[in-house]
Description:
CATH architecture of the largest domain: Alpha-Beta Barrel
CATH topology of the largest domain: TIM Barrel
Pathway: Amino-acid biosynthesis; L-leucine biosynthesis; L-leucine from 3-methyl-2-oxobutanoate: step 1/4
Region (Regulatory domain): 393-520
CATH class of the largest domain: Alpha Beta
Subunit structure: Homodimer.
Number of domains: 3
Strand content: 15-25%
Binding site for Mn(2+): 16, 203, 205, 239
CATH superfamily of the largest domain: Aldolase class I
Strand order of the largest sheet: 1-2-3-4-5-6-7-8
Low-confidence stretches: none
Pfam families: HCS_D2 (PF22617), HMGL-like (PF00682), LeuA_dimer (PF08502)
Bound molecules: 3-methyl-2-oxobutanoic acid, zinc ion
Mean pLDDT: 91
Number of helices: 17
Distance between the termini: 45 Å
Largest sheet: 8 strands, parallel, barrel
Helix content: 40-55%
Amino acid sequence: xxxxxxxxxxxxxxxxxxxxxxxxxxxxxxxxxxxxxxxxxxxxxxxxxxxxxxxxxxxxxxxxxxxxxxxxxxxxxxxxxxxxxxxxxxxxxxxxxxxxxxxxxxxxxxxxxxxxxxxxxxxxxxxxxxxxxxxxxxxxxxxxxxxxxxxxxxxxxxxxxxxxxxxxxxxxxxxxxxxxxxxxxxxxxxxxxxxxxxxxxxxxxxxxxxxxxxxxxxxxxxxxxxxxxxxxxxxxxxxxxxxxxxxxxxxxxxxxxxxxxxxxxxxxxxxxxxxxxxxxxxxxxxxxxxxxxxxxxxxxxxxxxxxxxxxxxxxxxxxxxxxxxxxxxxxxxxxxxxxxxxxxxxxxxxxxxxxxxxxxxxxxxxxxxxxxxxxxxxxxxxxxxxxxxxxxxxxxxxxxxxxxxxxxxxxxxxxxxxxxxxxxxxxxxxxxxxxxxxxxxxxxxxxxxxxxxxxxxxxxxxxxxxxxxxxxxxxxxxxxxxxxxxxxxxxxxxxxxxxxxxxxxxxxxxxxxxxxxxxx
Length: 520
Ligand code: KIV
Ligand code: ZN
């Protein structure tokens, strides 16, 4: 491997990913994801946007203090107070980086009402200020792919002269295509004085489904940093997916001879955890990490794979940390076997957690003859999403449904007190959600209700995801059970619990404040 072929992986799951409406993570969850990214060999972690809220600031500062290997980066608009706040949050990192940006395309210039010269002056001031604080500065012209080429070259040159060490070229609205993405990087490298001394980065959004292709094309043209998120999490159609670019360069090393520092066997574990804490499930046919990515169900494919796996598999499940021997467990499996299985699936559990999970595993094994890996992952996700000390908890549920109508008798524990309701509805889920509303009146609106079977068979567990909105705040809930209606009510109250926590936080530190991305 020559250094020229080393591509730096910049993960922005905790900043651009978390910015996606509804993907908000708790403080502890952010720290946990950052530790996983650090351990898997991500070069740079964009930990958050410190000026956005007290909560963001605290998370970035703690990630900066805890990280062992990765560069820790914070985002700041082109404003001196933003940059100072960012530096305050990241300065304790072993290797801090300030990332400052401003929208340079005509549409973005119009909002702060800066003309080309005024904006150039602002870039000069802010990049110089950032560089005086930190020797590792990244600068981004937001909406670069819709910025006039001459102006883009002019501002990139200014940023380099003022000390930026990485220039990131964002395709903010997912508008570009592979050839154009490559041509843009090539043009900047050729035309901008000083370009040979810095790293160019590519930051693509997936609105037209081309983020991975656009990122790889930029690398072919000379970019050496890819900005991406786990599972492609991000606003609208998301960002470039880390697992896709990393595995593409690994599997097609013959035509893309680029290397990263990522331990790919950690991909599956972090993908599951991000799906769980963000409340954004991974689509079944998602490249690399989707449930079906390594399934060969059609007869022809199965036959080929059994004879020689290479007939239909271009990578091995183990390469991404997916356990190949999905041997089912059952009610006779002991605690040691469960611990070993959890370890295989990427979960390290302490003795107390193992005790809890074991009780739930036994209950599941009593209802379901064979417990597969997917069931255990669902069990872990459910226990993390719905803890024993939540404000609302399900105590008892009985639903009668059929052609004669649907009724639900529900008992919830509300702040330690049992409360019961009996309701009807338009179907069993509606009946039980009406019961929740009767016990715990709320204004939150259900935006999404989704059910997936975890495995095959009529005894399969169902994973239910719900998304709720209240005064602009969004929260998700997830739960799994062989009883779909029980999973539904648990997911519903899970989201209500999260909304409640968020409402309280707003009172404390205005955490939900939506910060404009413009520098006025
Ligand atoms: O998409 C984008 O332009 C961004 C910038 C803040 C880098 O996320
Ligand atoms: Zn972005």
